Amino acid sequence: MSGTWTLPDDLTLPKLPDDHPGAGAPIPSHWSKCFGCGDDQPAGMAMQFTFGEGLEITGMLDVANRYQGGPGFIHGGILSTAFDEAQGMACMVLRRPVVTGHLQIDFAKPIPLGSVLELRARIDGTVRRKVYTSAEARIVEGPFADPDVVVATSRGLFLTVGAQHFDRAKDFVDGIPRSPHGTSSV
Ligand SMILES: CCCCCCCCCCCC(=O)SCCNC(=O)CCNC(=O)[C@H](O)C(C)(C)COP(=O)(O)OP(=O)(O)OC[C@H]1O[C@@H](n2cnc3c(N)ncnc32)[C@H](O)[C@@H]1OP(=O)(O)O
């Protein structure tokens, strides 16, 4: 990680909920129309997530041809979206809606189309409404696959928000909201 990112001294680690389903359990999409994880979003990235050990979660992304930036490689914005989604999903254990306040990515290695990316993300701690997260990506299938090589890292600050955050957009929602985890109040 070469970016600048300082964790505050007064971080608190959240406790896992008593009914946490445990490592390996799938994490449902937080919103079926979400570009990152929605299962009713044909234009989206359809990322799949599972709980890991403790506060960690794992997300998978198939790097489709339509995600091309430079010839043959993933677009940096797509990779940033994947991190945003993964780190947001890691916040699910809080059982409160979050939005991204700040995200910073280090693009360490090129990622070719046809890769399967594994993103591991976690909460590093919280301070009031601020949720500090981190994640890293590895290519686990495809031409450059090497599970020992980190190809990108990310740090992100998420903020817990109330229902009023989403109320402001209720007239623009595309689809019938399904919000099992409270990310949408509409
Ligand atoms: C079950 C769940 C599943 C959850 C699963 C969710 C998965 C979702 C994945 C996708 C997530 C997205 O892309 S969300 C879409 C992209 N993001 C957005 O649209 C957010 C747009 N921005 C905003 O709405 C706003 O700026 C907020 C909500 C982020 C913050 O505004 P606010 O609520 O008024 O908070 P505010 O009082 O200003 O700040 C509170 C504290 O945070 C700090 N703070 C605020 N913004 C920043 C910042 N960018 N960088 C540093 N620090 C910041 C302040 O200094 C303050 O610290 P202190 O004084 O306490 O020390």
Automatic annotation (TrEMBL):
Region: Disordered, residue numbers: 1-23
- Membrane topology listed for this record: Peripheral membrane protein
Alphabetized, the UniProt keywords read:
Apoptosis, Cell membrane, Cell projection, Cytoplasm, Fatty acid metabolism, Hydrolase, Lipid metabolism, Membrane, Transit peptide
Q: List locations, semicolon-separated.
A: Cell projection, Ruffle membrane; Cytoplasm; Membrane
- Predominantly, its location class is membrane
Q: Which reaction does it catalyse?
A: dodecanoyl-CoA + H2O = dodecanoate + CoA + H(+); (5Z,8Z,11Z,14Z)-eicosatetraenoyl-CoA + H2O = (5Z,8Z,11Z,14Z)-eicosatetraenoate + CoA + H(+); octanoyl-CoA + H2O = octanoate + CoA + H(+); decanoyl-CoA + H2O = decanoate + CoA + H(+)
EC top class named in words: hydrolase
| One Pfam family linked to the record | 4HBT
Q: Which residues cross the membrane?
A: none
Q: Which residues form the Thioesterase domain?
A: 72-139
Q: What is its EC number?
A: 3.1.2.2
Q: Which PANTHER family match?
A: ACYL-COENZYME A THIOESTERASE THEM4
User: Which family, according to UniProt?
Assistant: Belongs to the THEM4/THEM5 thioesterase family.
State the protein's name: Acyl-coenzyme A thioesterase THEM4
What species was this sequence derived from? Answer: Rhodococcus aetherivorans
